[in-house]
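Action item from last week, closing it out:
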Amino acid sequence: MQHESDSFADIGNVQLDTGRCVRCGFPEVIYGEGKDKETVLKIFRTMLERGIFGLATRIDEEKGCFLEQELTKSGTAFRYNKVARTFRLLPPESDEKKYTGKIAVISAGTSDAAVAEEVCETALWTGAEVVFIQDVGVAGPHRLQAKMPLLQDADVVVVIAGMEGALPSVVGGFVSCPVIAVPTSVGYGASFGGLAALLGMLNSCASNVAVVNIDAGFKGGYIAGLMAKNSGLKKH
């Protein structure tokens, strides 16, 4: 039996926080790892009943294909990104978000693609305009310099890098907005699964750089989305 209050829906093994968008700006996000595919589908259907267009992260291909099949039957619009392992429900095209803001997403290398795509998908889900710049790591700094015009009007920049994690500091020295650094577990032995990049980013001398956890693309995209939304509200 399903029970409801004004702020949550009791759907058995899940207590869905239906009031989070009002309190926190965006709906509750489903963390897909550890949940079976039927549970994720049940959460999505409950969200749809309430007009909530949710996001799920860490959705593997088996769960993604299952969700695609089931939601297609009901005519639900969605986007599944296999690289990012994200699955998001899409609102009607007529339901435009008034305040978006602009987020620039920069990846140091193509090996960081999965985390960078997770950032992008999360940022798009928040309603932001997203500019995605790939493979501009510090080994070839001229590549970043060529892309700088794309960053100048960004409300926030998210930088994804592994190895020594130097790229966010470089970007931070060129922009007047917050930079969210996302360390990845990409690198050889002494990178210690992303710990070297994390510590390098935490020790950045660029004052506008803040850091999230290793491989936490969702967290980087979500915080950027909040910043962009608030910036958009101020502009309007």
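Closing note: The CA atoms of residues 42 and 205 lie 46 Å apart.
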